[in-house]
Amino acid sequence: MRLLAAHPQVVCKVSGLITEADHEKWTVDDIRPVWDVLLSAFGPDRLMFGSDWPVANLAGGWNRWAATVEELLHGCSATEIHAVLAGTATAFYRLTPDTTKETTPCC
Predict the structure, then answer these.
(1) Burial bucket for residue 13 (CB in 10 Å: 0-12, 13-18, 19+)
(2) The 3-state secondary structure of the chain, one letter per residue
(3) Exposure pattern of 58-70 as b/e (b: 16+ CB <10 Å)?
(4) Is residue 86 a contact partner of residue 50, using CB atoms and an 8 Å limit?
(5) What is the pLDDT along the chain (107 residues), one digit of tens a residue?
(6) Rounded to the nearest 5°, which phi and psi values hold at 48?
(7) 41, 3 in Cβ contact below 8 A?
(8) Which residues have a Cβ under 8 Å from the Cβ of 40 and sit 6 or more positions away?
(9) Closest Cα partner for 106 from 59, 62, 75?
């Protein structure tokens, strides 16, 4: 992943981490090492949240995945959180930002 991240045009969508873990026993601490590599390699401006729904239902579901991401984002600035949860995807997919809504953490 670090080799890919070395190319500034590459953006990473983070999803599927829980379905690659033990579906019944995974914890945030199991996911954190991968998350930390991705966040440090790509930075928040090239990392975007992916719901992995409905596949996430195999390993705890949407609510558990969203709560995990919220915990993993703890310590990030509001600007960094916005980038991961909305800004990076908005820029990458060339969407028009919705300036009428405030972006808050996912949970």
Answers:
(1) middle
(2) CHHHHCCCCCCEEECCHHHHCCCCCCCHHHHHHHHHHHHHHHCHHHEEECCCCCHHHHHCHHHHHHHHHHHHCCCCCHHHHHHHHHHHHHHHCCCCCCCCCCCCCCC
(3) ebbeeeebbebbe
(4) no
(5) 999 999 999 999 999 898 888 898 999 999 999 999 999 999 999 999 998 889 888 888 899 999 999 999 999 999 999 999 999 999 999 998 766 555 555 55
(6) -130, 140
(7) no
(8) none
(9) 62
Tokens matching residue 58: 């195999």
* Rounded distance between C-alpha atoms, residue 43 and residue 27, angstroms: 23
- Residue type present at position 69: V
Report yes or no on whether pTM surpasses 0.70: yes
d(CA 97, CA 3): 30
